[in-house]
Design brief:
There is one protein chain. By secondary structure, the protein is an alpha/beta fold. It has 13 helices and 8 strands. It has a domain of about 220 residues: 3-Layer(aba) Sandwich (Rossmann fold). Helix content is about 45%, strand content about 15%. Strands 2-1-8-7-3-6-4-5 form an 8-stranded mixed β-sheet, with helices on both faces. β7, α12 and β8 form a beta-alpha-beta unit. It is globular. InterPro entries: Cofac_haem-bd_dom (IPR007314), Fe3_uptake_reg_CjrA_prd (IPR016773). It holds the Pfam family Cofac_haem_bdg. This is Haem-binding uptake Tiki superfamily ChaN domain-containing protein.
């Protein structure tokens, strides 16, 4: 059993399961969706038959990234014919990622040339390095960032103006969705935008934001399908933000629409708040994944609503620098 991902038992007031809450930001408690605790190795054994293992994450959470790295290694022991697929790189940077894996560039060159996320070294380096040392293919699975932004700004027809070289890289059907995901997406925006009425008839800006989300999901699904075609008999381990995969929605629903024959397993994170107990958490969240892992919550980003608003406006200004002409 690996430290950091153990199902630790003991006595805790009000916790009928006898499982202690995660004790640090690195700790996670793993269960199946019925609440039975599992070690990393036990989880890997259960996941071994899957064609695709989708590991949802809270971006930047130490415990989530530690679990991903440990689970990748444990799955490799079960099935060494593995492919790592990552939301954290976009498909137009696949060549830069391949050059790094082949030893032709250094890590700083990868980070610069492949536009790696700012938390690459702390969060994703272990998984990429594990793959590099073992010759495991790594798939840059996300849609190009500029195309996603411009769909979010201009809508579905933006794809019609792409040149053929770029358009062919994207899925044939880039906006496949499900009613449940649509409802969930608009509910996540908060306020009145979460109503059924607004999810059915949102404003243009909100609808375009949803289309941009679908483009990410369908592109990731398409890339996973392509990875399986190029690597028959391999198991794909796909990393993504949990919203893209939990409840078997998002990229999981898109993947299952493309390939209903695939065995897809979803591992989803859940925050363990002060006062929670395992039994209640599992009951409330068991639909999120075939397997769950429980983490300490991330720190509150802002206490000042004014500073939060300023930060959001800065992000919008940065996005506005891109031309969609």
């Amino acid at each position: 059993m690996f430290a950091g991902c153990a199902a630790v038992t003991g006595s805790q007031p009000g916790n009928g399961s006898g499982v202690l809450a995660p004790q640090s930001q690195y700790d996670s408690i793993i269960t199946d969706n019925q609440g039975s605790p599992l070690s990393i190795n036990q989880l890997a054994e259960k996941l071994a038959p899957a064609d695709v293992v989708v590991i949802g994450e809270y971006h930047g959470h130490h415990g989530a990234h530690l679990l991903q790295a440990l689970l990748q290694s444990a799955l490799y022991q079960q099935r060494p014919r593995q492919v790592l697929s990552m939301e954290q790189f976009t498909l137009d940077n696949q060549s830069e990622l391949d050059r790094y894996l082949a030893g032709k560039t250094g890590e700083e060159e990868l980070i610069a040339d492949a536009d790696a996320w700012s938390n690459y070294k702390a969060s994703y380096r272990p998984l990429v390095e594990f793959s590099k040392r073992r010759g495991i293919p790594v798939i840059a699975a996300n849609a190009p960032a500029d195309i996603v932004r411009c769909v979010g700004r201009n809508g579905v027809y933006y794809l019609d103006q792409l040149d053929a070289r770029r358009r062919i890289q994207l899925p044939d059907e880039p906006f496949l969705d499900t009613p449940a995901y649509r409802k969930k997406f608009f509910a996540a925006l908060g306020g009145a935008h979460g109503s059924d009425q607004d999810s059915a008839k949102p404003g243009k800006r909100l609808e375009n934001s949803y289309l941009a989300q679908l483009l990410r999901d369908n592109t990731m699904a398409d890339r996973v399908v392509g990875a399986l075609a190029e690597n028959p008999g391999h198991q794909v381990v796909h990393l993504t933000g949990t919203f893209h995969s939990e409840d078997r929605l998002g990229m999981v629903a898109a993947l299952e629409k493309q390939r209903a024959d695939l065995k897809v397993a979803v591992v989803s994170p859940v925050f363990w708040q002060a006062g929670d107990d395992l039994d209640s958490l599992v009951e409330a969240h068991k639909g999120k994944g075939d397997y769950l892992y429980f983490l300490q919550p991330l720190p509150t980003q802002y206490k000042s609503s004014e500073r939060q608003r300023d930060a959001m406006m800065a992000q919008f200004r940065e996005a506005g620098e891109y031309s969609c002409d």
